[in-house]
Design goal:
Elements: H1 9-24, H2 29-36, H3 40-47, H4 55-64, H5 69-84, H6 90-100
Helix pairs in contact: 1-5, 2-3
Length: 102
Amino acid sequence: MAGKNPWDPRRVALQQSLRRLREAAGLLQEELADRLGKDQSFVSRFERGERRLDLVELDEIAAACGVDLARLVKLYHAAVLEQTAPDGGATSRRATARRKTP
């Protein structure tokens, strides 16, 4: 089981996933915070890995970005693969690019 290392690749992957989700929804940190009924610092802190989120909060963030929790989990899983790939994620990015090619 992973310790509380904020630089654990899985934690970094979650931070990246949350930021990417917000950006894909076209939201600024302040706008997401407003949708959540929180301060902008709440969003900033979890995107920097300074605050941990529980499952309910993750579900609320996903919904505020217009997706369901399953979509967030898929984004997280892809980011974990990218973070943990021996080549720094290049193989994972190439595979993703191939899947998107018509």
